[in-house]
Amino acid sequence: MTKKMNVGVVGIGIIGLKHANSIFKGEVSNCQLTSVCVRSQKSAEAAKSEFDESVKIFLDYDKFLDQPDLNGIIIATPHYSHPKMGIKAFNKNIAVLMEKPTGVLSSDVEDLNKVAVSKNSIFSAMFNMRAMPIYIKIKEIIENGQLGKLTKVHWEISDSYRSQAYYDAGSWRATWSGEGGGVLINQGVHYLDLFQWFFGLPKMVHGFCKFGKYRSIEVEDDVTSFMEYDNGLVATLNLTTGEPGGTNRLEIIGSKARLLIEKSEISLMTYGSPEEEFNKTNKKIFAHQEITTEVIETEKGEKSHALMMENWANAFLNNETLIVDGKDGINSLMISNAIYLSTWLNKGISFPIDSDEFKQQLHSKISESETQMTE
Question: Could you tell me how far CA 360 lies from the centroid of its own chain?
Answer without folding.
Answer: 24
